[in-house]
Amino acid sequence: MIRLNSRIPVMAGPRLVEMADPQRVEALLRARNVIAVRRHKRNIVELQLCDFGDSARIPPKWGKPQKLSTSLECDDNPHGVWKFKRLAVTRGRPGTPA
Which of 1, 12, 7 lies closest to 40 in space, CA to CA? Predict the structure, then answer.
């Protein structure tokens, strides 16, 4: 239940994203990464935006992106074709020291 004259805070963790009117709240509730915080299991008092499988908070790879690919000619790579280099797999993520 949404009050017609009220605005509801939309939060992403501890940060306030916006104060949404009832029409905007209804649109946001259709999203899969929104959790409605209710008071007494009736009135919506806050919307929480959750991470949903995107890598926006993962820092980009440091250095040149070309270091992960090569255009050197060899038996399995013809002239003018780029291919990915094989990475050594360690215990952690590829490319990080063990």
Answer: 1
Give the span between the Cα atoms of 87 and 98, in whole angstroms.
Answer: 14
Domain ranges of the chain: 8-49
Whole-structure pTM value: 0.50
How do 8-12 and 43-49 pair as beta strands? parallel
pLDDT digits (tens, 9 = 90+) for 9-49: 999 988 999 999 999 999 999 998 899 999 887 889 999 99
What is the rounded CA–CA span in Å between residue 38 and residue 18?
18
Token pair for residue 21?
């009117």
